[in-house]
Write a structure and sequence with these properties.
This protein has about 100 residues and is α+β, with helices and mostly antiparallel strands. It has one domain: 3-Layer(aba) Sandwich (Aminopeptidase), CATH 3.40.630.30. The chain has two helices and five strands, in the order ββββαβα. The protein has helices at about 50-65, 75-85; strands at about 5-10, 15-20, 20-30, 35-40, 70-75. The longest helix has 16 residues, at about 50-65. The N and C termini lie far apart (about 30 Å). The model has no long low-confidence stretch (mean pLDDT about 95).
Length: about 100
């Protein structure tokens, strides 16, 4: 699988992978006090089943950790990824069950 470059599109409030003519994305809401809510993940049908969504989540979580933000995963896909990779709970805001 290719290693896609993550873009933080702050104007659209979403993380993105640009893959050919396709756009895979995770939408977010950032607060002024260091919290980020991941609200929705979208992978085009043509890219489904290739690990694109999981790679996108992984890179987004790495970026969130690097920026020192506290994560609130509202998106079921992101929450499911964290359940499968519980070491990522380290960046989930205290008191939030995944």
């Amino acid at each position: 699988m290719e290693n896609y470059e993550l873009t933080d599109n702050t104007d659209e409030k979403q993380y993105e992978f640009h893959i050919g003519k396709y756009l895979a994305k995770i939408e977010y809401i950032k607060t002024n006090n260091g919290e980020i809510y991941l609200t929705h993940t979208e992978v085009p049908v043509a890219l489904e089943g290739q690990g694109t969504g999981s790679m996108l989540v992984e890179k987004v979580l790495e970026d969130i950790e690097e920026k020192g933000l506290r994560l609130i995963p509202l998106c079921p896909f992101v929450a499911g990824y964290i359940k499968k990779h519980p070491d990522w709970r380290r960046i989930v805001m205290k008191g939030i069950n995944v």
